[in-house]
Every structure is written in structure tokens, then in C-alpha cells.
């Protein structure tokens, strides 16, 4: 009696028929084939633009640049379109898609029928949606391909061609994203173990040489120097280690519980598979070690930065690990346990039910790849991307900067480096070119040296880009101090500030630290002479429980709360290694607009006191009880008293005309350059009650046109405001010399209601009278209300 399709198969069951494997390969190839994304200015799009630019400039990794991605990073599937590299990128995607397909097909053909169906569904859907799932999934199934080809290589010399493809693919992915490189190295060792187990030392040596040769071919073929490779490894390991310390984001408890459940289930089934393997020899141990390490890498990549984008790719990767173990071994769990696990994974990870009843499954995942391939072959794809690229270049053209910079070298401080590439500037990036990523002492010092050495760029395009609610001045903290000491603002355009290096630039002063003092978590500390620029160093450590949590999940975080001289309270996340190195505490600059206000003497942003508290309630026990704090002069100074130029006023007060005479309270400019703008990414002023702007136009008849709104990204907080009964809004008043105020208009903002316009057709201002725009009381709880336009014009007669 023949086995039913869902029953475990024996070792003598034939592999999948060639036509099923070919069908899977064709569908999978079309699903994973990518043609690049349209040009954009966001954080991820900007680093992708730098990857392509660096490839054409033959920059040396480990010396000129360091990042999560390596010299093949320009081939990341979601990389943005860059005209000079388009043909190379498209060819690379075709070759990579072929390699992905070969490795996944090797696993497909070694599975039972039900497992093939699940592999096909999860692989096609998840790998199309998330490139990280594709890269790490390829690394998982490369073990299956390796094991199969090693067995075949004794009798079939052609199997060495397949082994060469596996080595080339794994090293390509390792030089594309550093996360895969340790798996590639481990795979090389596993291959040698498998061949030595068969008493084939010459074949084992040959495999190692094939692996090393493919690595050298890719490294040297991309313009890299062999002498730089050790520095690349050392620097990339530092980036990876710092990532786990600095980039952690907590997930919702339910999601974390689901992830832990899936992790425990996968580990249990892996151990059961290995326990039932016969014989349990060196082969089984090597395969188990590789799969366990791949599972650990997938877990850390997904649940270190545990936002919804990252956590969802753990579930299909865990499924891949299980499927790989079943493709490698003879044992199958009975009673449909494996099928139930895989169905759960498929439903949870990729929304399988929705996609199966939606035309998007066919249109996006199959026709989408076929359309892209047809457009590439037909020559129309470049034209589509080129039109979008030129539109973005025109949108972010910086003619004022171009006139000032000429052909001089320029860096971009922040995370929107694409703006320099689009404008054709002589871009001179610091080694860790996006500020948020310089999160270890060694990485920070590399960037600081970039601004202090003889080859320091004469110009810097400045737009701070804090992420994850970090203290803004702590991102690339040492480089920021070097910029504030040695560069001065000369122009502003489209949300950016152009800084020019002083002729008398000076090196970083040796810090003269005040004696350290011990702090307790939650203890408020007064800052002596907070009006003078100061650097703060905080030395705090995790206890044993905290270190275990950091190893298995993510590092717990502290946050710093500061009070400014005007009464504002701010709370920001701390990065432990940055805090130990030191960062600018006062002035408390949150962005480039605040820098201009401080530089031109409009606001001191002086910190009067501070305290350090756990980011999450109840996590204080994970830290050692005492914190050592030390203060030092920052060595930075504002400019000489002068009126702020008109272009800079437009950045500090976007959409406001005339500029205010005075401001009070929490007024924050969210510029386009830092990626935190309001609706439609226009620059706006966020005003938190009791913030106010004072205007003193000449006496006369005026018309006022204004526009207010609530930021889209903060609507979840806005909904909580609605539950609390808060009504965010703004008030326009006419005041006199005695302080008496007359309300001219009020505008309430509806949660989720979009922008609201105000138009006062005519009102008069007498001598001594002023106009005041103030945030309504509801803004203190919502903290999301903005003003995008406030324009006074003479009223029509």
C-alpha cells in the first residue's frame, strides 16, 4: 500500500519530479527578481544611494567606509535607482535571483510533498516582501545544497560546479550584508567536515580553496585591496556588536511571546531531529550547529530591533530552519505536528489567507516579476526609473549651496546623503556616513578624525537625524562636537544648513573633566553653569541579569531627562557606549533649526538639571546601582551677535511671515532634512502648550491666513488624547502694552481630520499692539499639533 501524501516518506522515496522543481524555480525566480526602487530621500534610500555611489568611486571598505552593508551592498534588492549603475545592478539582480533559485530548488526537491507546498508558499511570499528573509533564507538552505552536492561529488564531478555556485552565492551575500558573512564562513567549515568525514582530504582542501577563491574574486573584483580586508572584518564586527547594544527596539508583549514560542518550538524540533538521526556522528553535529547558529542570527536580527518590519521575518526563517532539517535528515515528526507548525508560521508571517483570496498574490508576486523582466528586456524600465529620478533631483536641487560649494569637498551630517549625490556635489563622506550608526567609541573617533584631519571637507550639509527618540546630540557625538567647533553656518536651503570650515580650525581639546560623582537612577542633579556649553559623560553598567538579557534578546536602555532654563522638560533615549564616550549636554540642540537659534543668540537652550531613569518601567534592576557622571567644557561657542539671514529664518520658522519677534515654551522645527517632518513631509513648527510666538508688525490693517494640523506619524498618540478629552488647537490674540489680550480667532484640531485653515479677512493693529499665536491647552498632552503657515498681508482697502 502506497503512502499518503501527508505521511512521512522513507529514505528511498525519490526526489521531487523535475517538472515540479522547474515550476517552483520559475515562480520563485520571478518573485525574487528585483529591479530597484524609485529614488527617495529617506534614511534607507540614502544609504542605498551611497552604496551605488561608492561602487563607482571604488571606495575602499574598512578604510574609507564602514557600514552594515559591504562592497556589494549596491546589489541589495531594494536599492534605489542610480543611473550610472543601472545596467550593472540589473545584471547583478539576474545573477543573484538565479543563485537564490538554485539553492531554494535544491531544498525543494529533497522535501516531501506537503513540505514542498509549504516551502513554496512561504518562500515566494515572504522572500518577495522582505529582502532580509531572502538573504538569510538562502543562507539556511545553502546547507541543504551543500550536503546534497558533497554526497554527489564523489561520483559526479559536475557537482563541483554546484558547490562553486553555493560558495560564490554565500560570499556574495556576505559581502552584500555583513550579517551573512559569519554564516558563509561557518558553511565553509561544515563543507570541509562533511568531506573529511568521507575520508576525502583532497576534496576538503579543494572546497576550502573554492570558497576562498570565490571570496577573493568578489572582493578584488569590486576594487578592494587585500590589505584592507582585515580592517573591514574588524570594523564590521564592531558595527555588528554595536548594533546589538544601540539599536534595540522593544516589541509588544504578545508579539514577543509569539516569537519566544516559535523559537522554543524550533529548538525543540531541531533537537528531536538530531536525537533521532542515525548515526549521530560528526555530520549530524555539524549540521545541527549550523542550523542552530542560523536560527540565532535570525532571532537576533528580528528581535533586537523588534519593530513590526523586523519581527515578522523571524517566523518564515524559523520555518526555513525546520524545513532544512527535514530535508537533511531521515526523521519526521508524526501526527501532522510539522504541518501544523508550518501552517501556523505561514498564516502568521505572510498573511497567507488574505493573499490567497486576493488578486495581489498573482498580480504582485508573479506578474510583477514578469513585468519587470519584460520591461528590462524591452528597454522601458530605465525610462520609468529615470523619470522618477529626475523628478526627485529637481525637487531637491540646491542651487544656493551649489554656487557656494563649487567643486569643493562636502559631507552630509545626518542620514540623507542622497541629496549630495543627486546634486552632483564632490561628496566626501566620513567612514560611518550615517550619524545614527556611529554608536561605539571606535566608530565615533573615526568620524571625528574625518573632521579634524588635513583632509577635512571644507563644507558640511547639516541636518541632524536622531532615531528611536535618542538624544539628538548623542548621534555621532564626537563628530558633532568637531563640526560645532570648526564650522560656521553660511546658507540654508530646503531644510538644510550649509556649514563652512573656519580658516583657523582647531583640533579637539583634551577634556578637562570635573571630578566624577555618583548618581542614583531617578535622582535629579543640578547642572552648574548650564548656560556654558558642556559635555556630559555617563558611565553605567549592566549587571549579570542585564547582560544575559542583552545576549538573548536586546540590551535594556536608560533615558535622560533634562530641564531647560525656560522650564521645558525633555526625555530622550541614551546609548550606553555613546554616554560613556561623552556627548553635548548643553546647549540642548534637537535639530538644525535649534542650532541656528543658538548660534545667532536667539536661545541659549541651557540645561539646568537632569536625571537618568530606565526607559521601561521595572527595568532598573537590570543595571548596576550607581552611575558615574562627569562634566567638561564643550569648547564650542555661538557666533557673534548678528541678525539671522533671511534664508535661515525661513528654516527656523517655516511658513511664518513675518518672523516672530519672540518665542516662548516648546517650539520645535521639524525640517524636511531630518525625516521627521509633518504631513506631506513639509517643514512645520510643533508647538506644545504653553508655547507662543509674538509678532510686532507696523500699525495698520492686516489679513491673516494660517494652516494648522496634527502630524500623521503621531496619530496613535492623538487618539489617546481624544480618550483623555483633550482638544488640541491654536489661539490668535491681539495684545497691548499692559499685557491685556483679545482673542481674534481659535482653531480646534480634529483627531484624524487633516489640516485646518484659518482666514481672518481684516483686523487692525494700533501703535503698541502685538499679535500672539499660542498653543491651546490640549497641545500639552497631545504634543502633535503643528502650524505650517502663518502669513500676515496688508488688508485690501
Automatic annotation (TrEMBL):
Q: Is Heme one of the keywords UniProt gives this record?
A: no
Q: What is this protein called?
A: 4-amino-4-deoxy-L-arabinose transferase-like glycosyltransferase
Keywords, comma-separated and alphabetical: Membrane, Transmembrane, Transmembrane helix
| The organism's taxonomic lineage, starting at the top | Bacteria, Pseudomonadati, Pseudomonadota, Gammaproteobacteria, Lysobacterales
Could you name the domain of life of the organism this protein comes from? Answer: Bacteria
Is Membrane one of the keywords UniProt gives this record?
yes
Q: Where are the transmembrane segments?
A: 89-108, 155-173, 179-196, 203-222, 254-273, 285-302, 308-329, 336-357
